[in-house]
Amino acid sequence: MAVTLAVTSGRGAWRYSWQRRAGFFADVCSGVSLRAASARLGASTTTTVRWWQESAGMELQMGPGGSLAQVPPPGGGWVGDKLTARERDEIAVGLAAGLSQAEIARRIGRSASTVSREVRRNAGPDGTYYASVAHAKAYQRSRRPKGCKLDGRGDLIASITEWLDQGWSPKLIAAVLARRAGADHTARVSHETIYQSLYVQARGHLRADLYRCLSTRRSARKSRTATRRGAGPFTEAFTISQRPAEVADRAVPGHWEGDLILGAGGRSAIGTLVERSTRFTILLHLPGRHTAEEVAAAMIAAMGELPDHLRRSITWDRGSELADWRDIQLALNTTLYFCDPHSPWQRGSNENTNRLLRHWFEKGSDLSVHSPAELRRVQDLLNSRPRPTLDLKTPAQALAEYLEQQAA
């Protein structure tokens, strides 16, 4: 196929066919210096430098007459590369012949979107696509040091640091940044970027001690394999398998999940209740030994203030602290369901909330020192935190909206 490219820049540039210019670019991209490739073509360096600037735009070592810094392997297909050098040759020839990108994609057995993305990313500044140049650009892109999105972004670092100090999770921070940034992708980061900045010392973008603000307090990633030891069987109690379907779909508020978070040596505890639909949280003050009698009294006092339609059911772990579950059912006119042994995921909302609460109530500490006023303060902070599961509404907002609907 004889393809002649109409060249308007540079005196006499029209004399060089598309194939000859493609050969020149292939020489430079294979490691030949631009000066040597120009001599091989019989063109002046002034002309070929202009070609390189217009159709390649990559930096050369040792000035305009130098060579390419990173020479790609001839066959392509390195790790992370989708197209081979041969496929790029076929794309270049097809475009020069006037074929549509869809037709080129059909001929090389690729999707049209792959060809479109390849041309958009790897064509030269003047929009001309040369296979060797595209191949070299793709290779350089795959090898360049990957910078962090927090580089030079003091505004993002300040916001992330402030929210981590308040106990926000990296996932929540990423969601809020994305909502705030809108279409500006430079003003958002993923939760993985935040974790890497916390865990990878070489990043160095966030304070070294900020990992302590995570619910796990871990300075490095660790697989979670431990399971919680369950209590004895509750032979006459309702099991989670008997729970009605409306509880599982979270469509109707009023269904709660509960458990205890324990202090040092299991000698102190705080009770936690989370409404499944709105994620609204209630904390139970347990200053004594968190016996079944004390837990029942605290739960009855806290939930007795709720309207009847917000006390539909409670799901709890099989812990001895709920041995007086019959008294709770009777006093609150509700139904208690108990999870299967060693199955904390069956109270997923409560487990997640308990992890968040460790920002204020650290593992291994004495939880009995926290007053009812302090529990109320933390409860209010948690209920005013945006939640991704609520489309970034707060639990307090979600509950208020539901109560307004019921009153209307």
Please describe the structure with a list of short key phrases separated by commas or semicolons.
single chain; 408 residues; alpha/beta; 16 helices; elongated; disordered N terminus
List the helices and strands and how they pair.
Elements: H1 18-29, H2 34-41, H3 45-55, H4 85-96, H5 101-108, H6 112-122, H7 131-143, H8 154-165, H9 170-181, H10 191-199, E1 238-239, H11 245-248, E2 255-262, E3 269-275, E4 281-286, H12 292-303, E5 313-316, H13 325-332, E6 335-338, H14 348-357, H15 372-383, H16 395-407
Helix pairs in contact: 1-2, 1-7, 4-5, 4-7, 5-6, 6-7, 9-10, 12-13
Q: Outline the biggest β-sheet.
A: 6 strands, mixed
Oligomer: single chain
Spatial extent as radius of gyration: 32 Å
Number of helices: 16
Distance between the termini: 76 Å
Q: How many β-strands, per DSSP? A: 6
In the predicted model, the low-confidence regions spanning at least 5 consecutive residues are 1-14, 223-233
Order of strands, widest sheet: 1-6-5-2-3-4
What overall geometry do the principal axes of the alpha carbons give? elongated
Structural class: alpha/beta
Q: Tell me what portion of residues adopts beta-strand conformation.
A: 5-15%
> What is the mean predicted local confidence, pLDDT?
82
Helix-strand topology string: HHHHHHHHHHEHEEEHEHEHHH
Q: State the share of residues found in helices, binned by percent.
A: 40-55%
Would you kindly provide a written description of the structure presented here, covering whatever features stand out?
Helix content is 41%, strand content 8%. The chain is an alpha/beta fold. The protein has a six-stranded mixed beta sheet. It is elongated, with a radius of gyration of 32 Å. The termini are far apart. Residues 1-14 and 223-233 have low confidence and may be disordered.
